[in-house]
Design goal:
With 476 residues, the chain is of the alpha+beta class. It has 15 helices and 14 strands. The protein has a domain at 283-466: Butyryl-CoA Dehydrogenase, subunit A, domain 3, CATH 1.20.140. Helix 4 packs across helix 7, helix 7 packs antiparallel against helix 12 (415-430) and helix 12 packs across helix 13. The longest helix has 41 residues, at 271-311. The model has no long low-confidence stretch (mean pLDDT 96). It binds flavin-adenine dinucleotide (FAD).
């Protein structure tokens, strides 16, 4: 079985070269500030032991024949895609938010398609390299970050038009044994907790953009890589403890003339396939969103229902109406992912690609509904998440009995539970961590307009026009 323990994962992470910069310091991955994020990823290793999750969280590798983590699998069927979606939803529910382990494997699935197609069309030798790398990745149960989003400079200009060509990551030198790359990738979730950084292009590339059409994977501590990192966690607690391991970090990942050996290069100069790769990673990643985003709605829904209950208004018609809306959002997004899985297509490599329209429809609805979902929770929770007294005041002799008396709402709900729920709601709605989760839920996998473009480009609008011509009796 190619699945390691959470301790093995931590150990190898802590052995990595220091290349993380945080708050003006160069730190190791064992820095306590990174612990909540390390714990979050470590939890994805631990969950394999859960007998109720086993069938969903593991898969049989078609490359090694061994059992691997589902989030390290190359999808071989619609069933695999369905299980990935289910696994993502379950793990996010249990973690209490984004599990940060999808983007690496989403990029690797996209590469498994594109490297084979490129070889078949151009006689290149990327696919065998990719397969060897993938076996190594699965055997060691690695964690990958996908670094797709370039810094991008002036958004109205293409990569080759920027006044500084490094604003999109590019190849600056080709050598006998590899390439040297320079650039910077933005917003890289989980990069400080990853073994590998999988780099793919950000956008469609034109003929002038061969130098920017590059894909590769390298260890996250490779010389020349500098990760400038910030972490967000729910607010620290002193008294009201929960499992509370949750934390996410993002890295601004600088590639300061980084050498990548050829065996780790999966595209180099093929502009057409770089474009396909950019689109395919987005497709796999947005499909992952059809699993994680319903889990976020599940949390918002649970919090909304519970607070309405504690407030004594669970039976009010507007509360029931709001819960129905949340259910509709969660399940519509999930259903779009199911449709995308069922309607997947098989690439030449055997990898299954989720249906692009259903994937993007699901991700689009998830993104644009998100702020409304938080609005629903904020509405039902009232103002207290914003003005909840500080934790210490609930435990100081003078204010404790008074706060407990005045926190009480419905009979049968203890002051402590009332306090616990509102402390959680305050984190969920009013903390810096909540703000990051909201922006991530909107932009992660691409800003909403990107999904609209993907939907429109793939959709047969002409056939709909023909329908109207038929019904109107127009003949041309
Ligand atoms: C929490 C979080 C985690 C993330 N994790 C990852 C990750 O792990 N890996 C990764 O690669 N990326 C990651 N992303 C990046 C995410 O995919 C991008 O934020 C998203 O693609 C938008 O890019 P941007 O942030 O550069 O915004 P911008 O591109 O600056 O977009 C801002 C606005 O400008 C519009 N716009 C941009 N360009 C144009 C144009 N040419 N013409 C017209 N309008 C335009 C956009 O539609 C949008 O409305 C993450 C983002 C967040 C917030």
């Amino acid at each position: 079985m190619a699945i390691v323990t959470a301790d093995d994962y931590r150990e190898r992470l802590y052995r990595m070269r220091k290349n993380i910069y945080m708050g003006g310091e160069l730190i190791g991955r064992d820095d306590p500030r990174l612990k909540p994020g390390v714990d979050l990823i470590a939890d994805s290793f631990e969950r394999v032991k859960d007998p109720n999750l086993k069938d969903t969280i593991t898969a049989k590798s078609h490359l090694t024949g061994e059992e691997v983590h589902r989030l390290n699998h190359i999808h071989q069927s619609s069933e695999d895609l369905l299980k990935k979606q289910e696994c993502t939803r379950l793990l996010c529910q249990q973690a209490g938010g984004c599990i940060q382990r999808c983007m690496g494997i989403d990029a690797l699935n996209a590469l498994s398609v594109v490297t084979k197609d490129c070889d078949d069309n151009f006689g290149t030798e990327y696919y065998p390299r990719f397969v060897e790398f993938m076996k190594y990745f699965q055997k060691n149960d690695l964690v990958g970050n996908c670094a797709q989003t370039d810094i991008k400079g002036d958004r109205s200009k293409r990569p080759f038009e920027q006044s500084d060509p490094d604003l999109y990551l590019r190849v600056i030198e080709k050598k006998k044994d590899g390439i040297v790359v320079r650039g910077c990738k933005a917003h890289n979730s989980n990069a400080p907790f990853s073994d590998e950084i999988v780099v793919v292009p950000t956008r469609l590339m034109t003929d002038e953009e061969a130098d920017w059409s590059v894909a590769f994977s390298i260890p996250a501590d490779t010389p020349g890589i500098k990760q400038v990192v910030r972490i967000t966690t729910p607010r620290p607690r002193k008294h009201i403890h929960t499992k509370h391991f949750y934390g996410v970090a993002d890295s601004t990942t600088i590639f300061d003339d980084v050498f990548v050996p050829w065996e780790r290069v999966f595209l180099c100069g093929e502009t057409y396939f770089a474009s396909i790769l950019a689109m395919l990673f987005a497709t796999y990643h947005r499909h992952s969103y059809t699993g994680c985003k319903p889990a976020i709605t599940d949390l918002i829904m649970g919090a909304s229902a519970l607070v309405a209950d504690y407030n004594g208004v669970a039976e009010a018609s507007h509360v029931k109406d709001k819960l129905s809306e949340l259910i509709a959002t969660a399940e519509l997004v999930y259903a779009a992912g199911i449709a995308a899985s069922v309607k997947s297509t098989e690439a030449a490599s055997g990898t299954h690609i989720p249906n692009i329209i259903y994937t993007n429809v699901g991700r689009y609805h998830a993104g644009v509904s998100l702020y409304h979902e938080y609005e629903t929770l904020a509405d039902l929770a009232g103002g207290l998440p914003a003005t909840l007294p500080m934790e210490d005041d609930f435990f100081s002799p003078e204010t404790q009995p008074l706060l407990e008396k005045y926190m009480k709402r419905k009979d049968g709900i203890s002051a402590e539970n009332q306090h616990r729920l509102f402390r959680y709601l305050s984190d969920m709605l009013c903390s810096a961590h909540a703000g990051v989760a909201q922006v991530g839920g909107l932009h992660g996998g691409g800003s909403p307009v990107m999904e609209k473009i993907a939907i429109r480009n793939q959709y047969d609008i002409d056939s709909r026009k023909r329908l109207i011509k038929m019904h109107s009796g127009i003949k041309d």
